[in-house]
Structure formats: C-alpha cells, structure tokens
Write the structure tokens for this entry.
Amino acid sequence: MRDRRQSTTRGGTAARPRESMIIVGGGLGGLSTGVYARMNGYRTRIFEMHEIPGGCCTAWDKGDFTFDWCVSWLLGNGPGSEMHQIWMELGALQGKEMRHFDVFNVVRGQDGRKVYFYSDPDRLEAHLLDLSPADARVIRDFCQGLRRFIRCLRVYPFLKPVGLMGPVERTRMMSKFIPYFNVIRKSITVLMRDYSQRFTDPLLTDAFNHILYEKHPNFPVLPFYFQLAAHAGRAAGVPEGGSLGLARSIEDRYRRLGGEISYTPGSRRSWWRTTVPWAYGSATAASTARTSWWRRATGTRPCTSC
Ligand SMILES: Cc1cc2nc3c(=O)[nH]c(=O)nc-3n(C[C@H](O)[C@H](O)[C@H](O)COP(=O)(O)OP(=O)(O)OC[C@H]3O[C@@H](n4cnc5c(N)ncnc54)[C@H](O)[C@@H]3O)c2cc1C
C-alpha cells in the first residue's frame, strides 16, 4: 500500500517520497484508511468535523434508552469469511461478545400473520410451507437457492479486489464459482419485486420485499440471498457495544498505531483551514459517505425486526 512514487514539483524535478496522508472524515471509511495507512508506515491525521468517531456508525443515549443508528448486522463479524480478518486487523471485534439471532427479520402482515425469516434454509422452508402450502414450488426454489448461496459465500474473495488480481489468480478465483453460476445468474437477473409476484399468498409477496426491512424495488434477489446466507453462517450478527463501540474500537487501534485525529465540530471546512500547511506535499484520502442507498428511517419501516 505504501506509495513510494516520487511526487514531482512544478519544475518537473523529483521531490521526496510521499510519506504522509490526511484523511477527511472519521467514519468507518476514514478510520479504516487511517489504520491501514499507519500499518503501512504513513504519517496520518484524520480530520473529523464531528466530536466523536464513527460517522453514520453511531449511537446516542436519551433517557434510559440507547438509540443505535447503524449496525443491525455486521458482515464478517464471525470467523469463516475473509471479511472477518479485516475487522480483526482494524481492532474492531477483539474481546467482544457477538450476538447472533435465529431470525433475520419478522414481517407482520396487515392481517396479523407473521413471516419469520429464519436464515437457516430448512427452518425457513418449513415455516413458509406452513404459512402457504400452495406456494410450495416457489418456496422450495428460494430455499434451495439460499442453500447454494451459503456454500457460494465461503469462496467469495473479500481480501483482494478482483481488479488487483492477475489473470491466473482471477481464473482460479472464478473457477471456484462455477458450481454456483446458475444461482448467481438467476438471482442477479431477477428483481425481488418480480420474483415475489410468483407467490399466490399476498402476505408472502409483501413480506419477501421487506426482508431487508424497507422495500428496495430495484434490488435483484441476490442481495437478499447474500444477507441471509451471511446471517446463516453466523457472519452477520451484532457486536457487543453496538455501532459506536465499533467505531471507538477502531479509533483506539488507530491511535495505538500512532495515528492522529482532530475533531473540529462546528465547521464543515475546518479540515481545510487547519491542514493546508501540514498537508503540503501529502497524499490526500477522502472517506466518502456511501450511505445514500441505505435509507432506513425509523417510522417508515413497514415491518418490525426482532
Ligand atoms: C441507518 C443506517 C443503517 C446502517 N446499517 C448498517 C448495517 O447494519 N450494517 C452495515 O454493515 N452497514 C450499515 N450501514 C452502512 C454503514 O453505516 C456505512 O456504510 C458506513 O458507516 C459508511 O462509512 P463512511 O466512513 O464511508 O461514511 P460516514 O459514516 O458518512 O462518515 C463520513 C464522516 O466524514 C465526516 N465529514 C464529512 N465531511 C467532512 C469534512 N468536510 N470535514 C471533516 N469531516 C467530514 C462526517 O462527519 C462523518 O463522520 C448503515 C447506514 C445507515 C445510515
């Protein structure tokens, strides 16, 4: 990761190697960038305009209640996938108890009936068949797809982006997906809103659209499989301490590695005013909010999770 390229001055002569980095934003993206940058020897400073780390990954107390804004499921929170290694490198999970649930979500219909989305495909199949025997064919098809996806997830490469793989490595990685080609093809080409129309019971049609809480009309079936499969593999639970605890643990790891962080509440532009001299000649990394697609707002959720 260390960028040893020589930066070039205006006159075209080679300057000293880049060794420092400013990071705008102390959300999970910025904190993680900081940790890996420190592990790779960069001098780093994160500029965060809030007074606490975490960005969207946050929580707050009101009266006797804690409102946890973010982590309903943390992909990779359990061992068994490469993503877990990343959280461990970030110091996010050490010493914490993980909470796993049998049920991913419960959707309650207007008629009072409830659909329990167990992530275990056998339990899910039995429950759905109980609710609507007439939909046996579609139910079996979905659950069979989920079983295959659970196996597929075990070969999914999280550590190395495909773009960084060489031709041999890429071919080797792709060959592991051959047994799952069909389930991936089918689930990526069909939108859940269309797939769910195959049920005759309107409760199931509605419930399947709300597996991921709010309705995602443009999501294909694949992300639903992905979440349920991760949950079934005990890799989508909730870490002790919740969202803010997660952010604070990564901040702690970052500081222990020698990283610096400045909280400058009250000004959107403060990082710029305070950093220009310090950052001269530095690489700049910006953490971007990737959350616009994820608008789960309390009160607009048409279903309840447990
Ligand atoms: C309601 C909700 C629920 C979610 N649930 C889950 C979940 O269950 N599981 C899951 O894996 N993910 C979940 N996510 C997604 C996850 O929270 C985000 O993907 C992740 O936190 C994004 O991190 P980020 O660092 O990219 O961005 P952000 O969290 O947006 O962080 C950006 C940071 O930059 C700071 N900043 C912005 N501009 C400046 C500036 N000019 N100067 C200084 N600082 C600046 C902000 O204050 C903020 O702290 C959820 C998101 C939301 C909103």
User: Anything to note?
Assistant: Confidence is low (pLDDT under 50) at residues 1-5, 270-306. Residues 101-233 form one domain. Residues 136-153 form the longest helix (18 residues).
